[in-house]
Amino acid sequence: MAELVITEKPLAAQKIATALSEGKLEKKSEKGVPYYEINHKGKEILVASAVGHIFILSEKIKSNTYPVSEVEWKPSYLASKNSSFTKKYYDVLKKLSKQANEFTVATDYDIEGSVIGANIVKYICNKKDAKRMKFSTLTKDELIKSYETASKHLDFPQIEAGETRHELDFLWGISTSRALTNSIKNATGRYKIMSTGRVQGPTLKIIVDKELEIKKFIPVPYWQLQLLGNIKSKTLEFFHEKNRFDNEKEAKDIYEKIKGNDGKVHEIKKDKTSIKPPSPFDLTSLQIEAYRTLRIQPKNTLEIAQNLYLTGLISYPRTNSQQLPESLNYKEIISKLSKQTEYKDICKNLLSLKELKPNNGKKTDKAHPAIHPTGEIPEKLTQEAQNLYDLIVRRTLASFSSQAIREIINLKIDVKKEIFVTNGSRTETFGWLAVYGKFNPYKDEEIPETKKDDLVKVIELNLLSKETQPPKRYTPASIIKKLEQLGLGTKSTRSSIVETLFDRNYVNNESIEATSLGIKTIETLEKYCVEIVDEKLTRHFEEEMEQIQDEKKKREDVIEEAKKVLIKMFKHFKENEDKIGKSLYEANQETLSTQTIVGKCYDCEGSLKINYSKKNKSYFISCNKYPDCKAIFSIPKYALPKPSGKFCGECKYPVIKMIRKGKRPYEFCINKNCKKKLEYQESLNN
Description:
single chain; alpha+beta; Rossmann fold; Topoisomerase I, domain 3; 6-stranded antiparallel β-barrel; 21 helices; globular
């Protein structure tokens, strides 16, 4: 009999098998699923993988009622048609389990990985326990060490916490989504799938609250005096030291007073500030920085980082840690990185230091260190993956580097006793900023050397009329940061939760804007069933799950508490189901209208609307007054049309945004006689 090593993904199985095989790797395949037979120090080992979750939660008894209370784990292929591809992995693991008498779980060492491994051991291998490998990189040395020092038992506290999270999310998500969907059907006779969840609801509320704050915002007028002045042949922008005038007359009087006059240097102040090196990345800070510097969406950052991990280039990305422990061989990693041309000089400088010490952050993770490169040389990366890898490498190396020193200059000038101010800055000592390269967040704004009473030639003087601005909307990165601050969701799930809000038409746009559906949904739930969107309740259960992991609470007690909350919550919901359903249906119709109407019809009083022809399997635009109005416009195939809110500068017809998979969106004028039509058609072919 052999030992069966169970991994989470096929690529991880290959890496582990290769590391342990001592050069004698026998790859086999069944139903297209690869597995490996190897020998390690005389021991026969089988290495096979799952493909993520091959067991998911399902209702014990199928129904259409809510709240759901009884659930069970089922093979994914039985519970969901979309997971039929998992059956062949299930079958291979089942077959191999019969050839083994020892079992080792080598899934990712986190809550999700632990649940995946535990379910395979329990339901496929029919065992209560197994050995557990723990590793943070898929490098040969670490994998061998992880195998040879594997724990004799599964990580049960982590498994318990993970199973609790799955059950809570399932009970909450299925129950609330079913309640919303049923409310519309029962109130209107129409069927419209609605969804929310334990974290999704509070997340949407955060975005909607911001949207309502923006809508309620009343701009306040103010005025600024701006001056363009030339000092030593360099033009600088100055503002009056008061900066903002709430009284227009006061600003105008000063404008008239100094108009046509030059100034002189009044005061120069120089300060130096030290900027510490950045901490190594945890997942959230990586997602935020990747969005800032590379404009990669947080969900995509996680996917790319996961692939970099699976190919052995970086450590495990789903980590909360901003610390690189002393147990890591810093010197070895940096020495390996020095073999890559772009990092050679940086690594040489670091290796010459007396001590290698990273500027560790405050956040820690019991399971994994901060994200860092392994030193392995990349091969055939996509441009996006190469950019993210470069960011991770430079951030890690920067954390070992010296502080940077910036000089901040404050310059005041006097124009007829009125003081104007500008600020400049420059990097005096680059330190870690030189290592961070193109990701450097600081820009130099040079101010020429000058002294008191030097002439300032005024080139331009402007009285600017402005208004205060509403709060900024969340971006995909800033909403993740907000969720982390509030303790909602996990490092691994926050980006997918935000993505779901987009998919469900609750929000849209890069600067995240709540749709009328999102706003109305929150308004309705706050009025009739506030618990669904209560962030305090969500955070309470997050804390309960942490206590399960710390063995301070029992899983059964937390689940029982959650069921009681759901029963109470849906009692209120059912009392107002009809009102909730009507309100949500109206919101759906309103949102659908805004997402399909592109503009007014040019032939009648109607509106031009995007439609889909099932017969031709294509989109087209027509008047919503059809059949009274026959206005119709064709749209290019193989793209998803969306209203852009813009109109053609040539013919004034609506312009729609065409979204193509894997390509940049482009804009398209719907008027077939437009002179610029050729340009749009050319952009389609590019």
